[in-house]
Amino acid sequence: MPPVDTAVIVVAGIALFAAFVNGALGYGFSSLTVPMALVFYTNRILNPAIVLIEVVTNFYVLFINLSGVAAVWRRVLPIVLGLLPGIGIGALILTSVQPGWIKLVTYSIILPLILLQAAGWRRPIRSSWLVGLPFGTTLGVLYSVTTISGPPLAILFNNQGLVKTEFRAGLALVRVAESSVTAIVYYQLGLFTAESGQLLWVFFPCIAIGVPLGSYAISRLDAETFRRICMSFDAWVVGFGFSRVLIEVNLLGSPWAYAVLILTLLIDGCLLYIFFKRRSASNRSQQTLVAPIGPG
Q1: 291 within domain boundaries
Q2: Span 259-278, pLDDT tens digits
Q3: Domain limits for position 159
């Protein structure tokens, strides 16, 4: 393990950027912070600190998006109810499985979800009880083991055609429920330790600065381009973490394990090129439509 000072500086920098993204998009703190922080800490130390931070962050995001709650609460109710058993199952897994293998599972699940988002995957999905309950249970297991739920939630809500305010309100409702219940379950299992408490002193200033800045900045940025760049950064971080954990659990040695990172960079590079090419074509089309008609 590297010196504590190095770990704290790196994790604080990532957490500040992640808080900025969370303030802008309504999610992203854990999915950006966890992959890099897992290089320095285990899930059992990192998760409790992340969960307590997310309780505060998610309530704040919900408060600033209250206007969209009335339109989405019926859609997210099955997901919230499904979360409850999933969180309990995931917390038990966290306390009983070797940390290195938990990291491996974390990266294995997150990386495909991020790349699906980056590819702009769209399929009409209705959040009915038939879909919402099993989705919520699976999400609860994923969140309590990894503290990450933003990518699968974003995929689900994007494919329901929610407008910006409804999207953020739906995310906030689910994430308030999952973070609050997970915090209670962690407390009952005795997972809050002094090491987790030390991380809180790193995360709280980052949240206090980053989230309001992100909320302010997103109104002045192109939200879709910003979101896409954040996904690329997320994919690179997860690809690096994936390669590192393959070495940690002795599945692959260096440098072969870094083939995962190289493959991730290649795939995301292609998807990023396609994204900006489409954006450029769309912008040219709009400029053509609004161009003034000349004489004759």
Answers
A1: no
A2: 988 999 999 889 888 888 88
A3: 4-282
1, with CB counted inside 10 A (0-12, 13-18, 19+), is exposed
Report which residue type is found at 226: F
Give DSSP secondary structure letters for 55-69: HHHHHHHHHHTGGGH
Write out the two tokens for 118: 């980056």
Beta-carbon neighbour count of residue 281 at 10 Å? 10
What confidence tens digit (pLDDT) does each residue in 122-170 have? Answer: 665 555 667 778 888 888 888 888 887 777 777 777 666 566 677 778 8
pLDDT at 1: 44
CA 237/CA 239 separation, integer angstroms:
5
Q: What burial class does residue 34 get, using C-beta atoms within 10 Å of its C-beta: 0-12 exposed, 13-18 middle, 19+ buried?
A: buried
Number of other CB atoms surrounding residue 127 within 10 Å: 22
Total structural domains within the chain = 1
Within-domain flag for 9: yes
265 Cβ neighbours under 8 A, 6+ residues apart: 236, 239
Tell me, yes or no, whether 296 lies in a domain: no
Radius of gyration of the chain (CA): 20
State what percent of residues in the chain have pLDDT above 70: 86
Nearest to 172 by CA among 94, 65, 24, 277: 65
The pTM is what?
Answer: 0.72
294 within a domain of the structure (yes/no): no
